Amino acid sequence: MMDPFATLGVEPRFDLDLGEVARRHRELSRALHPDRYTGAPAAERRLALSRAIEVNDAFRLVKDPIRRAEALLVRAGVPVGETSEPKPSPALLMDMMERREELGDARRAKDLAAVHKLGEAMRAREEEVLRALGQALAGEPRAALPYLGELRYIRRFLDEVSAIEEELAPG
Fold first, then answer.
1. pTM for this structure?
2. Residues 6+ apart with CB under 8 A from 26
């Protein structure tokens, strides 16, 4: 796995200023743009193109909080991935199951307001988990694993909310 922080030349931390990261991405993209290498030897053009692809991949990775946390954990030598992380707590699983049932009920009732309300509540929870994840990653990285797992559940729930909102939106 490439080190996206090194590729972009930004400090490896969770609470990055994403506006600054985007600025850095634009600078690198301009410097590596194929038009700048039209007269260069083929090997140099290929190298610039390869580096541009790497920069774009690094930017996409760093923008995503789950993938950014995973990259930080890998840097710290902590294995990541849903199969190598601790199992979620029964309380988290029960809570997520209840929220999904509420979401399913709202969908069946075509209650768009209830779907929005569930999404808003989950987005607020996401903010709390992101804060806790950032604090854990700044201290003991292994302590971040439960938050990372919870964030994955939250992300899936919010993806489902978006799909239902699209489905139920007046068209």
1. 0.88
2. none
